[in-house]
Specification:
The protein is α/β, with parallel strands linked by helices. The protein has a single domain (2-194), classed as Rossmann fold. Helix content is 47%, strand content 14%. The strands form two sheets. The chain has a five-stranded parallel beta sheet with strand order 2-3-1-4-7, with helices on both faces. Strands 5-6 form a two-stranded antiparallel sheet. β5 (122-124) and β6 (131-133) form a beta hairpin. α1 packs across α9 (191-208) and α6 (112-120) crosses α7. The termini are close together. The structure holds adenosine-5'-diphosphate (ADP) and zinc ion. Adenosine-5'-diphosphate binds at residues 9-10, 31-32, 35, 52-53, 56-59, 64, 85-86, 88, 92, 154, 163. Zinc ion (ZN) binds next to loops.
């Protein structure tokens, strides 16, 4: 199954993607994670991407599409994949159409006020990219690999607002683009509550194909 997760930053796409990946045995492809790996290198490209990301803007389409195209050509993507954070612009979606046929697009919906609260308390493991909230994990150490958690630069309050605007302007038009394959879910509840209807939907879809 080839799945896209669509939704504002902080809507819970990453958390949902990990559950789908585990149960349906397909890789989660997060362009944010791929870019964060690039940024760790010491190259002119890394510095450019780092600057764009920390300001909350978007990496240029051409570069992003190349990165995804390369990743999707790997053998683990043959059975399917979950795209988390891609496409983020209509141009990226149009390019993706020429690379692969997407079965379904899951739109994760959450009010902006809750997004701002959640992102401000979000902490990430810099080693394995597991996501936590300061409420659930006040020790701020990764429960999987024991690494001290960090707050991503772009989860700082001044950047969050900008990322939400970028989503509204550049990414929300994709809701129309994919209107023929859209499944909507609210992530206002717990991660498991969010996942439940998605799992049921995907099981039915899998049985049909
Ligand atoms: P979130 O979904 O929480 O905003 P991500 O981890 O998906 O964060 O992305 C972090 C940053 O990486 C984005 O703000 C952007 O700068 C860059 N990025 C990720 N995916 C894309 C994409 N598809 N196109 C352009 N830039 C991207
Ligand atoms: Zn970890």
């Amino acid at each position: 199954m080839k799945i896209i997760l669509l939704g504002a930053p902080g809507s819970g796409k990453g958390t949902l993607a990990k559950k789908i990946s585990r149960d349906f045995d397909i890789p989660q492809i997060s362009t944010g994670d791929l870019f964060r790996a690039i940024v760790k290198e010491d190259s002119p490209l890394a510095h450019k991407v780092k600057y764009i990301m920390s300001s909350g803007g978007l990496v240029p389409d051409e570069m992003t599409v190349e990165l995804v195209k390369d990743r999707l050509s790997k053998s683990d993507c043959k059975k399917g994949f979950i795209l988390d954070g891609f496409p983020r612009t209509v141009a990226q979606a149009e390019a993706l159409e020429t690379i692969s046929k997407i079965d379904t697009v899951i739109l994760v919906e959450l009010a902006n006020e809750i997004i701002i609260e959640r992102l401000s308390s979000r902490r990430t493991c810099p080693n394995c990219s597991e996501i936590y909230s300061t409420e659930d994990n006040p020790e701020e150490v990764c429960k999987k690999c024991n690494t001290p958690l960090i707050q991503r630069d772009d989860d700082k309050p001044e950047t969050i607002k900008h990322r939400l605007e970028v989503y509204e302007t550049n990414t929300s038009p994709l809701i129309n683009f994919y209107s023929d394959r859209l499944f909507k879910v609210s992530s206002a509840g717990s991660p498991d509550e969010t996942y439940r209807p998605v799992k049921t939907f995907l099981e039915k879809l899998e049985a049909k194909n």
